[in-house]
Amino acid sequence: MLRRQFISRLSMAACAASLLATPLLAQSATTLKAADVHPKGYPNVVAVEGLGKKLEKATEGRLKLKMFAGGVLGDEKNLIEQTQIGAIQILRVSAGPLSTVVPDVDALNLPYLFRNPEHMRKFVDGPVGQEMLDKITNTPNSRLVGLAWMDSGSRNVYAKKAIRKPADLQGLKIRVQGNPLFVDAMNAMGGNAISMPFGELYSALQTGVVDGAENNVPSYYSQNHYTVANVFSRTAHTIVPELLLFSRKAWDKLSAEDQALIKKLAREAQMEQRELWDKTVVEDTAKLKEKGVTFVDDVDVQAFIDATAPVREKYGAPYADMIKKIQAIE
Ligand code: BDP
Question: Is 6 inside any structural domain?
Fold first, then answer.
C-alpha cells in the first residue's frame, strides 16, 4: 500500500473512531444525587427537581439530577455526612442541624432573631446571606459548598392543647431538631425538649413518646402530624432558613462553567421554591382548617421572647457581628 493511501485510511479510521466516541461520551453523563427529608411534591423537592431539569437541558444531558426524597437516604445529620464524603452531591437541608459542621450557622437558629419571614428573605437574598453561604464554603473541613437558600417560614408549637404562654408548655415533651441550641430554647420556653430525627416524629407523637413538636405549616401537614396533635399555636419562635448545598468533593471535579451554571440555577431554585412555598402555606392552612385543626393566634409572643433572652445571649455571643448585620437589615 502506498504511504499516502495508508495515511488517508488511517485518518478515515480516526475520523470514524471519533464519530463513534460521541455517543460514548453522551453515555458517560454524570447523574448528581440529590436528597431531602421531605416527600415528593413538597416545595423544596419540586424546586430542586426543577433545577435538575434545567441542568440536564443546558448541558444536553451531560449532567442530570436524581432526587432521593422522603428521607430515604437518612435523617438530616446523616445526609450532611453523606454529602461531605461525596455520596450525595446536592443536599437541601435545614440550617438547624448544619451548625454541627459550620458553627456560625447557629446565628440563624436563635429564637426570635428574624423579625418575620420577610426579614429572613431579605437576609438570604442580600449580601449578608451571601456572606453566610461563603462561610459555609470556606469553613475549614466543612467539605460543603453553600449554593443557595430556601424558605421554611416560621416554626410554631403544636400539641393536643393550646400554647399561649410559657406556663402552657409546662410538663410537655416537645420534639425539637437535633441541636443543643433548640433544646435550650424549648426548655426556656417552658417545655421539656426532646430531640429526635424528623422521620421518627409521627410515631413518637402517636405513641406519646412526645406530646408535641414545632414546625411550619407545610411540614405539619405533609407529615400528618396534625392527626395526632391538632392544635397549632403561632409562637413563631424561630425562622430557620434552609440551604441548598453541594458536596465539595464533587464540586471540585466540575468545570468552572458547570459550577457557574449550577450556582445560577440554584439561585433560580431559591426564587421558585419561595413562590411554591407561599402557595403551599395558603393551601395547607385551608386543608388543615377543613380537617378540624385549631390555629391559636392570640399567643403571648412577648412572654416567649423574654423567656428565650438567655438563649440568645448564650448562643449568640460568638456571632455578635453577624447578628448585628442581620438585625440591621431593614
Ligand atoms: C422542616 C425542615 C426540615 C427539617 C424538619 C425538622 O424543612 O429540613 O428536617 O423541619 O424539624 O421544617 O427536622
Answer: no
Give the range of the structural domain holding residue 313, as residue numbers without chain letter.
155-239+284-327
d(CA 206, CA 194) in angstroms, rounded, equals 15
Cα 80 to ligand 1 centroid, rounded to whole Å: 13
Quote the ligand 1 centre to 234 CA distance (angstroms): 17
Both 248 and 119 in a single domain? yes
The DSSP secondary-structure symbol of 194 reads E
Domain count, the chain: 2
Per-residue pLDDT reduced to its tens digit, 50-67: 999 999 999 999 999 999
Among 36, 37, 93, 194, which residue has the most ligand 1 atoms within 8 Å of its CB, making it the best to mutate? 37
Percent of the chain whose pLDDT exceeds 90: 92
CA 158 – CA 174 distance, rounded (Å): 9
| 87 contacts 33 by C-beta, under 8 angstroms | yes
Does 205 share its domain with 253? no
Specify if 323 maps to a domain. Answer: yes
